[in-house]
Amino acid sequence: MIRFKNVSKTFHLKGNHKTIARNMTMNFPSGKAIALMGRNGTGKSSLLQMIAGAIQPDSGTIEIDGTVSWPVGFMGSFHRDMTGAQNTRFLARIYGVDTEELIDFVEDFSELRGHFYQPVHTYSSGMRSRLGFACSMGIHFDWYLVDEVTAVGDSAFKEKSTRILKDRMETSSAIFVSHSIGDIRRICDTAIVLEKGSARYYRDLEEGIERHERNMLMERPD
For position 152, what pLDDT does the model report? Predict the structure, then answer.
């Protein structure tokens, strides 16, 4: 389980502020593929980064049972001057998995071909997302954080990504961010909807989708 206890987070930029969590207390239950939904600017990606430890809350605590992936789709995961293969080797050492086994898996799954041995700074955003997704799926985590990554690539790659993610959900949990309701329905079984710094958990996925779609029709938040 992931527990938020009185978590608050506000970003300040050029005299403006944006609150994505306001004294937020809630649980992300284990054994679920949870859709994290909200309008643009409600803080979905930032919430994933807080769970991963890349961003610290202003106050409150986040407790996590088990291991958690980096936010797949977050480009800060890689050293830009290292190749895809070198980044993969580094991750294998950090997470204590077999290096060559992970290299083989990532090279095959990502379909980067010769680019796998080129520096990451030469990659397109889609290529970096493929690399990040493949690395994450090649390492066992108790929690997978996935941010729009199944939108990358052609239909065959999307289908392959969805299949392996659903396979990982047999033994792990996931928090999944996507603007595609179709992808959410294919992958997730519960939902959390963000709105104006608060969050509500829905055991019924369709109820969560309905709440999110009503929010989308409302006046945009401040």
Answer: 58
